[in-house]
Amino acid sequence: MNIVRAKDYEDLSRKAANIISAQVILKPDCVLGLATGSTPIGTYQQLVERYKKGDLDFAGVTTVNLDEYRGLPRENDQSYYYFMHDNLFSHVNIPEGRSFLPDGTEPDSEKACTDYERIIREVGGVDLQLLGLGHNGHIGFNEPGPVFEADTHCVRLTEQTIKANQRFFASIDDVPKEAYTMGIKTIMHARKILLVVSGEDKAEAVKNSFFGPITPQVQASILQLHKDVTVVADEAALSLINA
Ligand code: F6R
């Protein structure tokens, strides 16, 4: 595991965008696995700037997102579909129809999940998967539990995650309680992983995930077994370890 220390959030965003840019430049027809959440927003802004300057071309790129709320229509501004369009897709030249997310509008969860695994297979697997890190060590919506769930599946979100998401909704009752998420095997199959993490409130999660035992109680700890993981973290997130 390669830990890259960033001074602050802006530096983190630049460094993460450098790694994604290198991937796109070296393999223009690559498959990027993408994440939502607040941490990657600065990274996406950097990518958009580079595209607008003419330094990056997404014409050959395919994207697959980690997860999506179940039951939110795409046009709901809290859907991950909306988030990705707002923060990245509508600002760069990824071809129409080459950006995939689990279909949160599909009520049959088994179908939604098997369809998504098929899409990931059909696009040839993920070259570079971008991840954020939850306070409890979750990646995607893979929450602490007795096992690592392998494939894309439907999860009931934990109270902690529902509360963390509450800031994006009018009331806690509006926060979706279920989501479709790539599983741990799906994530671990990515050829490269880039995890971005920022802030002192994530320092404990960083310590538990990358310097503690590998356990499904801390889902990100499995990343210790992946052969090509880069963690870009700011000083605050690294404050409990000596990287
Ligand atoms: C997002 C996702 C989540 C977030 C995590 C961190 O697609 O799957 O695992 O990456 O909750 O979120 P932020 O960046 O908001 O702290």
Topology, pairings included?
Elements: E1 2-6, H1 9-26, E2 31-34, H2 41-53, E3 62-65, E4 67-69, H3 80-87, E5 99-100, H4 109-122, E6 128-131, E7 153-156, H5 159-165, E8 178-181, H6 184-188, E9 192-197, H7 203-211, E10 229-234
Parallel strand pairs: 1-10, 2-3, 2-6, 3-5, 6-9, 9-10
Antiparallel strand pairs: 4-8, 7-8
Bound molecules: fructose -6-phosphate.
Please summarize what this structure is:
The protein is of the alpha/beta class and about 240 residues long. It is built from 7 helices and 10 strands. The strands form 2 sheets. Strands 1-10-9-6-2-3-5 form a 7-stranded parallel sheet, with helices on both faces. The protein has a 3-stranded antiparallel sheet with strand order 4-8-7, with helices on one face.
Give a description of the structure.
The chain has 243 residues and is of the alpha/beta class. The protein has a single domain (2-197, 206-213, 225-230), classed as Rossmann fold (3-Layer(aba) Sandwich), CATH 3.40.50.1360. Helix content is 30%, strand content 17%. It contains seven helices and ten strands. The protein has helices spanning 9-26, 41-53, 80-87, 109-122, 159-165, 184-188, 203-211; strands at residues 2-6, 31-34, 62-65, 67-69, 99-100, 128-131, 153-156, 178-181, 192-197, 229-234. It has a seven-stranded parallel sheet, sandwiched between helices. It has a three-stranded antiparallel sheet with strand order 4-8-7, with helices on one face. Helix 2 (41-53) links the parallel strand 2 (31-34) and strand 3 (62-65). Helix 1 packs across helix 2 (41-53). It is globular, with a radius of gyration of 17 Å. The relative contact order is 0.18. The model has no long low-confidence stretch (mean pLDDT 96).
